[in-house]
Amino acid sequence: MNGNKIYHLSYVSTGCDGLRFEHIKEILDVSNENNKETGITGILVYCNKHFFQILEGDKSSVEELFAKIAIDPRHDNVIKLQCTYVAKRQFEKWSMGFKSYNKELKLLDNFNTEEFYCYVKDQLNDCNAVSLRILADFFDLNG
Ligand SMILES: Cc1cc2nc3c(=O)[nH]c(=O)nc-3n(C[C@H](O)[C@H](O)[C@H](O)COP(=O)(O)O)c2cc1C
Q1: What integer pLDDT is reported at residue 3 of this predicted model?
Q2: Which CATH class is domain 6-142?
Q3: Is the CB of residue 57 less than 8 Å from the CB of residue 6?
Q4: 131 Cβ partners below 8 Å, 6+ apart?
Q5: Measured from the CB, is residue 41 less than 6 Å from ligand 1?
Q6: Ligand 1 pocket test: which of 72, 77, 80, 102 has the largest number of ligand atoms within 8 Å of its C-beta?
Q7: Does the predicted TM-score (pTM) go above 0.85?
Q8: Predicted confidence (pLDDT) per residue in 15-47, tens digit
Q9: Domain segments of the chain: what residues?
């Protein structure tokens, strides 16, 4: 069951006090390296101390990673939004896409919203992931 489907998990959290450029850069560097090895793809959005992340891959890899992320002291109030299976990856090009809405972190962005939006908007009707729809609407409204 679900043998050839992709597990999709999303959550929101609050960055810890004193979280700075270097901390986020380190998270992204480690994520890109680890996620390539474990076959996980996704996106991390940072906005005014809040994270939103979507992880996709096989269920055991995603759940194992999420268990580590949930106890990471660099953030708090980790709240799962959605766990579901989707027919295909939405972030296959990104071992961890990053988009920030904080000016001082813009340098770390590796994610082109327009590219993403064009890419997923045709598929949104076929995708049952509510978190992806929320993300697409968020990008649509906020750029
Ligand atoms: C908001 C946030 C998102 C993270 N996302 C990932 C991720 O996608 N992949 C990853 O390997 N680690 C991620 N981490 C870091 C993990 O919590 C953990 O520090 C890291 O996986 C440990 O890697 P190691 O076992 O190789 O030392 C994230 C941490 C935070 C705070």
Answers
A1: 53
A2: alpha beta
A3: yes
A4: 8, 10, 54, 81, 82
A5: no
A6: 72
A7: yes
A8: 999 999 999 999 999 999 999 999 999 999 999
A9: 6-142
